[in-house]
């Protein structure tokens, strides 16, 4: 007894010494201890194994004694293990792995130590109801993935219903539903890596497909905010009279003499008031679009992070169950979330366009597009609208994250340039050209370095080419 205490033997070691008269490997003693804990409330299983061991021990050797007890209790233990599958996944997985290892060892011991010959031993092995540990673990892990993804769908739906596009803090202008979705995906991924088994291709694909579907569903929800075409003014139908015709000049002189002066005065008055008291014209709707754009870039960053985590920490084993051809293609290209990562940049571009056109052609319509060069070109220039545009850009850069600012500012520039895509008399060309230079200068100075000079030159060239074409058509 003193020797047992000095060597720190556990319950499993003592049982091995009492029944088998020798020490067994550590995994055997650990399994016996776990077995006792699992079977503590299951009397028939314990007593049946005990009786079988005692009965067999009198007439047979050690191996036969152990195997007889194992055969008696294996079925009852399997029932108990299945009952515990829903309690602790990690504990049960560990128990199953040890049970499978012990099962193989005992079967091998029985074959090698059988007193009745090898053929008789093989016959007995065929009659054993094996645990099928690999199958149980695979089913258990698959079930856990499905349950986790189902919880993710429920959480996503609740987040979509509760989303107001009003971030909790100015320091993190991101939709709360996106934060919760990313947090959930990271938790699932962390728990997935805690599995003490080899990860196969089919298991990885099961998880990746589920997470990718969640992300794609949410991205569709974020981008469901209309199109830029819905904010662009309707182009009037063509007439037989161009801006340089005698009839147009006659109407222009009539307006200067008083005819239609009220309309011109109203536009100039509105623009002047806005110019003397410049303030952002960005509506609540535009600000919500900025939050949506931030959210898309937030998803892009964190999905790339999940992609990196999978690539660095995952050792994928060949699949023996359900081959996934698409998975091989994605994995060979180095991308697990290939679909969602390839679609996100396009969605970000789309969202930036919608936000820009909403700002220019809806929020700023009264002081920009509707007032610009209306009535009299010289008295309806762009200087008043530029002051408000500066305020709008300042507010936009305050609300947007650094990664979203470049794309959003470029789209605002393109949308504001479209205000010049209208026909004006040739006599007013120099006025319009100077206004365009002033507008161009704002984007050069605002957030210097965000927009490449080459990009601005390209957009300006498009406007200039369109204007030249319009003048040529009118001249004809």
TrEMBL record:
Signal peptide: none
PROSITE patterns per UniProt: MHD1
Pfam families: TPR_PATROL1
Domain MHD1: 93-235
GO MF annotation list: acyltransferase activity, acyl groups converted into alkyl on transfer
Top-level taxon of the source organism: Eukaryota
Protein name as catalogued: Protein unc-13 homolog isoform X2
Species this chain originates from: Arachis duranensis (Wild peanut)
């Amino acid at each position: 007894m003193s020797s047992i205490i000095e060597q720190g033997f556990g319950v499993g070691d003592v049982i091995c010494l009492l029944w088998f008269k020798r020490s067994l490997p550590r995994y055997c003693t650990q399994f016996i201890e776990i077995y006792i804990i699992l079977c503590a409330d299951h009397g028939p299983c314990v007593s049946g194994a005990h009786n079988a061991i005692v009965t067999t021990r009198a007439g047979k050797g050690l191996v036969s004694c152990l195997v007889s007890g194992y055969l008696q209790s294996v079925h009852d233990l399997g029932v108990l293990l299945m009952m515990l599958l829903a309690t602790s996944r990690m504990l049960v997985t560990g128990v199953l792995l040890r049970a499978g290892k012990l099962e193989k060892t005992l079967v091998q011991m029985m074959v090698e130590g059988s007193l009745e010959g090898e053929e008789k031993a093989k016959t007995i092995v065929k009659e054993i109801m094996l645990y099928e540990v690999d199958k149980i673990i695979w089913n258990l892990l698959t079930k856990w993935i499905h349950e986790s993804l189902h919880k993710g769908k429920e959480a996503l739906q609740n987040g979509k219903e509760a989303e107001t596009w009003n971030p909790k803090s100015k320091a993190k202008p991101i939709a709360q539903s996106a934060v919760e979705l990313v947090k959930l995906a990271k938790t699932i991924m962390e728990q997935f890596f805690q599995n003490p088994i080899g990860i196969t291709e089919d298991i990885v694909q099961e998880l990746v497909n589920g997470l990718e579907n969640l992300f794609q569903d949410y991205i569709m929800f974020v981008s469901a905010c209309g199109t830029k075409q819905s904010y662009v003014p309707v182009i009037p139908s063509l007439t037989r009279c161009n801006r340089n015709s005698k009839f147009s000049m006659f109407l222009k002189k009539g307006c200067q003499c008083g005819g239609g002066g009220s309309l011109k005065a109203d536009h100039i008055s509105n623009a002047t008031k806005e110019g003397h008291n410049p303030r952002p014209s960005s509506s609540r709707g535009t600000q919500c679009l900025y939050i949506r754009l931030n959210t898309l870039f937030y998803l892009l960053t964190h999905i790339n992070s999940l992609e990196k985590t999978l690539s660095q920490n995952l050792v994928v084993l060949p699949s023996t169950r359900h081959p996934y051809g698409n998975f091989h293609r994605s994995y060979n290209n180095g991308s697990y979330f290939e679909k969602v990562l390839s679609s996100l940049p396009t969605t970000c571009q789309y969202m930036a366009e919608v936000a820009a056109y909403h700002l220019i052609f809806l929020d700023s319509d009264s002081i920009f597009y509707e007032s610009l060069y209306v009535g009299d070109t010289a008295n309806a220039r762009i200087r008043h609208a530029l002051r408000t545009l500066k305020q709008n850009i300042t507010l936009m850069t305050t609300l947007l994250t650094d990664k979203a600012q470049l794309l959003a500012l470029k789209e605002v520039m393109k949308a504001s340039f479209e205000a010049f895509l209208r026909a004006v008399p040739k006599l007013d060309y120099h006025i319009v050209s100077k206004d365009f230079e002033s507008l161009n200068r704002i984007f050069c100075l605002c957030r210097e370095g965000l927009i490449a000079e080459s990009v601005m030159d390209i957009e300006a060239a498009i406007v200039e080419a369109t204007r030249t074409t319009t003048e040529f058509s009118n001249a004809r």
